[in-house]
Write a structure and sequence with these properties.
ABC transporter ATP-binding protein; 10 strands; six-stranded mixed sheet; about 260 residues; 9 helices; AAA+_ATPase; ABC_transporter-like_ATP-bd
Length: about 260
């Protein structure tokens, strides 16, 4: 569980968001905010709209209605050039990691730098690559291919590639999925390290209760596409709410089965 977060400025504000697919209403009047410097964990059963929400924040999906304000800009109203400028300030760690299999680790990390930080010299690019790898604990992997890495290592390299462009906001989509409990805990601690070193504001989508406990300054639980409960981690742990207790118990059982 994280320390108290003193910051109150909102870097993301989601208001009255609706998103459906055909006859299925996934987000139904969803509202919440991400505060500067905090890790916000979003919990909820599959199909409650967690991943859809963060995809709407970067407009990989377009909301049907409502507003999403990111760093002072309504992303639903931005033209493509302005949207890309905002996206460059947001790091998105996908479940799969999404490394380029045909590139070495070095090339995977150089790629976003050359695209976004176009004024950097070759010496500066080299330094940034080494710094990012040091920060995820894998400096020795610099010339390896993704196929030579374990699942946990691939996740770390994906995280290095995300932070190398100095994002203000991080979006983590199930960062510990498919990892063993020890590696999952290492990734959770790394999320906290990134928060401290890069001063990021982060949304963490997870089913992993231990990840949530380790990383969260604040939690929200979604039910049927809207916020069911919001609070500090201890408020979720010390509640009489049957839905929340059953959710935590079911996820704890799943975690035990994987150990």
């Amino acid at each position: 569980m994280k320390n108290e977060n003193p910051h109150t400025e909102n870097v993301v504000e989601v208001r009255n968001l609706y998103k459906g697919f055909g006859d299925m209403q996934v987000l139904d009047d969803l509202s919440f905010e991400l505060r500067r410097g905090e890790n916000l964990v979003i919990l909820g059963k599959s199909g409650t709209g967690k991943s859809v929400t963060i995809k709407c924040i970067v407009r990989l999906l377009t909301a049907d209605s409502g507003s999403i304000n990111v760093l002072g800009h309504d992303v639903n109203q931005l033209k493509e050039k302005e949207l890309n400028e905002i996206r460059q300030k947001i790091g998105f760690l996908f479940q799969s990691g999404a490394l380029y299999d045909s590139m070495t680790v070095r090339q995977n990390l150089e790629f976003p730098l050359r695209r976004i930080k176009k004024d950097l010299s070759e010496t500066e690019i080299e330094a940034k690559v080494k710094e990012a790898l040091e920060n995820v604990g894998l400096p020795e992997a610099i010339d390896k291919m993704p196929s030579e890495l374990s699942g946990g290592m691939r996740k770390r390299i994906s995280l290095a590639r995300t932070i190398i462009v100095d994002p203000e906001i991080m979006l983590y989509d199930e960062p510990t999925t498919g990892l063993d409990p020890v590696t999952s805990h290492e990734i959770s601690l790394l999320i906290n390290d990134i928060q401290q070193k890069y001063k990021t504001s982060s949304i963490v989508i997870t089913h992993d209760i231990e990840c949530a406990r380790t990383t969260a300054n604040r939690m929200i639980m979604l039910k049927e596409g809207r916020v069911y409960k919001e609070g500090k981690p201890q408020e979720f742990e010390q509640t009489d709410d049957e839905l929340i207790n059953s959710y935590f118990q079911s996820q704890n059982v799943k975690n035990l089965k994987t150990t």
